[in-house]
Amino acid sequence: AHVNARGNRYQGGPARLPVHDDNVPWKTPLPDYKPETYEAPILKTQPVWADIPTAIAAFKWHTLDGKTDRRSHEGQYDIDNATGLPLNPRGRTGLAGRGLLGKFGPNHAADPVVTRWARYSNGEILLDVRGLPVMEFVSIQRTDTGEWALPGGMVEPGDNISITCKKEFSEEAMNALEMPADEAAAVRAMLDKVFHNGAELYKGYVDDPRNTDNAWMETVAVHFHDETGKAFSKFQLKAGDDAKNVQWARYTPAIKLYASHTDFVRRAYDRLTTVRPHGLTPRI
Q1: Which of 13, 165, 225, 240 would you call most buried, defined as having the most Cβ atoms within 10 angstroms of its Cβ?
Q2: 3-state helix, strand, coil in the chain (%, to 5)
Q3: Are strands 153-154 and 105-117 parallel, antiparallel or unpaired?
Q4: Mapping DSSP to helix (H, G, I), strand (E, B) and coil, where does residue 171 land?
Q5: Which of 128, 97, 105, 79 is nearest to 269 (CA)?
Q6: Within 10 A of 282 (CB to CB), how many other CB atoms are there?
Q7: CA–CA dist 181, 184 (Å, integer)
Q8: pTM of the model
Q9: 68-69 and 215-226: which strand pairing?
């Protein structure tokens, strides 16, 4: 069952109705379950990225509805007969409505996991006590919660996962939005090389604190590994857009990141180190 999506209080909003693990599944009868409905103030301004509530009856669930992708990586989700709204495929969250999310149902994102090997000053790869290479990954600190996370973001209408990964990384981890045109072009060229042939790590539901009973986050996490460690040598990481800090962080099993991002980074590490001779640098 999701955990982050059942936190005590919604970000900037009301307290969630407590939901015991046994009562999370919708198939479990809970006749007294009447959570508060919450929608963030920003949704009342009707931003272009948000659904229009009065048009719910016309929404085409489970399809590409115009430019809005209402398909879920989790498969078919249920629609509440009483409200006509989608029901979170992982169960009750203790809060109805959209919360901070723009779309009813799935809200699609992409999360790039950009990694390299930690190295000594002489260029040799740093090994841990097991003889395995130490992995570093690009991490940004979110401005909204202060938590460290991957530099991902929402998939905009017309964009695909690859475009979103490059766009969000350049904006959040390299501050490309404020770069001179020639410098931004160089960054894009570098990212085209780094982000070529990424490996999909995960596709599906995200245990995100913004999730509600009727709106939830889904993502595709893609791994991009800089084997030589030279791809970023001429470029400096610089926080921008929704990030207030950025760094190359070292992965350890104890690391804690926003939402499901810890799991995505662990998958990247396992991909590079599983079933490989200790002390050898894997080639991908």
Answers
A1: 165
A2: 20, 25, 55
A3: antiparallel
A4: helix
A5: 128
A6: 16
A7: 5
A8: 0.87
A9: unpaired
Question: Could you tell me the sign of the dihedral formed by the alpha carbons of 256, 38, 75, 90, in that order?
Answer: positive
Residue with tokens 């699609």: 108
Contact predicate 97/214, CB 8 Å:
yes
Check: CB of residue 144 under 8 Å from CB of residue 11.
yes
**Tens-digit pLDDT string for the chain (284 aa):** 799 999 999 999 999 999 999 999 999 999 999 999 999 999 999 999 999 999 999 999 999 999 999 999 999 999 999 999 999 999 999 999 999 999 999 999 999 999 999 999 999 999 999 889 999 999 999 988 899 999 988 998 888 888 888 888 887 787 777 778 888 888 888 888 888 879 999 999 999 999 999 999 999 999 999 998 888 877 777 777 678 889 999 999 999 999 899 999 999 999 999 845 444 444 33
Distance CA 206, CA 202 (A): 10
Q: What tokens appear for 199 in the block?
A: 């490996």
